[in-house]
UniProtKB/TrEMBL annotation:
Protein name (Swiss-Prot/TrEMBL): Serine protease inhibitor
Family, as annotated: Belongs to the serpin family.
Keyword hit for Signal: yes
GO function term, MF aspect, one: serine-type endopeptidase inhibitor activity
Signal peptide: 1-20
Xref: InterPro entries: Serpin_CS, Serpin_dom, Serpin_fam, Serpin_sf, Serpin_sf_1, Serpin_sf_2
Pfam families listed in its UniProt record: Serpin
Any one GO cellular component localisation term in the record: extracellular space
Stretches that traverse the bilayer: none
Residue ranges annotated for the Serpin domain, each copy included: 73-448
UniProt keyword annotations, A-Z: Signal
Length: 449
């Protein structure tokens, strides 16, 4: 009997050793990443997840798109600073929508009204799911229900990388009791990871570094976290694609760009592009090959500074440019190759969001999150973002990855069309990378040289 007991104990010990060896100490466990235990619903008439087969937008999508675009432009105006930068307002919106499902009472009403007044919470979730899953899934060939909304299985078509990656997390400090309904909703509509760990834990921060390594070039997301904070959000994004209409080597030429620090030499890319204009600016639209995105490049008129234009860039100006498109008319566009470095760590964007209409939701004694946790101490403390990197060149668009900077063609088979208008982007401009169906901005930024 004693031998059997000893043998049984040894077997249990060995099993425990094997299980410990199989778990990865550098990754979050089930008790830390609470979303791992949940599976996204495959009912596309409810989730409207494009990767799962939904191909029709939810009701109120047009209203949702207009409202969300207006909020993102507010974020841009409040985010704007002199110099070159890029940020992803769509991620801020997705995180606010996620947190709205954990909010209650006046707090939930404040968030939903600021984002898309007149659209129900359920419809907002469906529209957000459709938008985010579509822009990430179109470039991927893996459309199975098991595939992640974040398109981790990016495909390479014709040897080129094509993807949009959005990574969002809601992070709770230590042992807060997170509601199961909130966890299921975030999985169904947002594919947001809900993490729970001690903010003072160095090991947990190292795991977070590994989780976001593709967006930080393996840097540190946080040097430390404020232990007084309760719940925070974290977002990151990356894009890689080629141009729908590729450049030839003969389309490239050196020229001068009037930067804030004087003239500098740049490489200009010449092509025929969709032409747009308003009373304040001239713009062109370029399209990407595999991702369902397009890029609007906007240059204020002579005498209008980029700072003045950007801080007054409203929905009216945005729609004026979009509505000015004449499909029968193109411009010869001379666009400089350029790049903007992102942040290698998380930046606090809470004040930008507060200035954009979310006033009391970050104040513990003025907010309520009863749909997030049973704890009375729970509060949404801050929003953090890892600003993306961006490179625009003859090879296409890239961020942390790229398809290289070489034109696809040695020489143009069909010459560029003669046009009445030539637009040379030879002074500071702004840009918007937007969804080609809803016109919701994904990235926004400025380039000053």
């Amino acid at each position: 009997m004693m031998k059997k007991a000893i043998s049984f104990a040894l077997c249990l010990l060995m099993a425990g050793t094997v299980l410990t060896a199989c778990s990865n100490p550098d990754e979050f466990s089930d008790s830390e990443n609470l979303s791992l235990k949940y599976t996204r619903s495959d009912k596309t008439d409810d989730t409207f997840n494009y990767a799962d087969g939904a191909d029709t937008a939810p009701s109120s999508y047009d209203t949702y798109s207009a409202k969300i675009t207006d909020f993102e432009l507010r974020l841009f105006r409040n985010r704007h600073k002199s110099g070159s930068y890029v940020f992803c307002p769509a991620n801020a919106v997705l995180n606010l929508e996620t947190v709205a499902n954990g909010a209650s009472g006046d707090t939930q009403e404040e968030i939903t009204n600021a984002l898309c007044s007149g659209v129900t919470l359920e419809n907002m979730n469906q529209c957000a799911s459709y938008f985010a899953s579509r822009i990430q899934s179109v470039a991927s060939s893996d459309k199975s229900p098991e595939s992640s909304q974040s398109s981790e299985n990016d495909t390479e078509k014709n040897g080129a990388k094509n993807f949009v990656k959005l990574s969002n997390s809601v992070i709770s400090n230590d042992n807060a009791d997170i509601m199961t309904g909130f966890l299921q909703t975030t999985k169904d509509y947002y594919d947001t990871d809900v993490l729970r760990f001690d903010y003072a834990s160095d090991d947990a921060l190292k795991k977070l570094d590994k989780k976001y390594a593709d967006f930080t070039n393996s840097g540190s997301v946080f040097k430390n976290l404020d232990a007084k904070q309760s719940v925070i959000s974290l977002s990151a994004a990356d894009i890689c694609d080629r141009w729908l209409n590729p450049y030839a080597q003969t389309d490239l030429e050196k020229g001068k760009f009037k930067s804030a620090d004087g003239e500098k030499e740049v490489t200009y890319m010449t092509s025929n592009e969709t032409y747009m204009k308003s009373n304040k600016a001239t713009a062109v639209m370029k399209y990407f090959s595999q991702t369902p995105l397009k890029m609007m490049i906007v240059m204020p008129n002579e005498g209008v500074s980029l700072d003045d234009y950007a801080t007054d860039f409203t929905s009216l100006e945005y729609t004026t440019l979009l509505d000015s498109v004449d499909v029968t008319k193109t411009a010869k566009a001379k666009i400089p190759e350029f790049s903007v470095d992102g942040s290698k760590s998380a930046e606090d964007v809470t004040q930008i969001v507060e200035k954009s209409g979310i006033n009391s939701s970050f104040t513990a004694d003025r907010s309520s999150y009863k749909n997030l946790s049973r704890s009375d101490d729970i509060a949404f403390s801050a929003m953090y973002d890892i600003a993306p990197s961006l490179s625009i060149n003859a090879g296409g668009i890239g961020g942390m990855q790229s398809n290289g900077d070489k034109a696809e063609l040695e020489k143009r088979i069909q010459k560029l069309a003669d046009t009445d208008v030539t637009v040379e982007f030879n002074r500071p401009f702004m840009f918007v990378i937007l969804d080609n169906e809803s016109d919701i901005p994904l990235y926004m930024g400025t380039y000053t040289g």
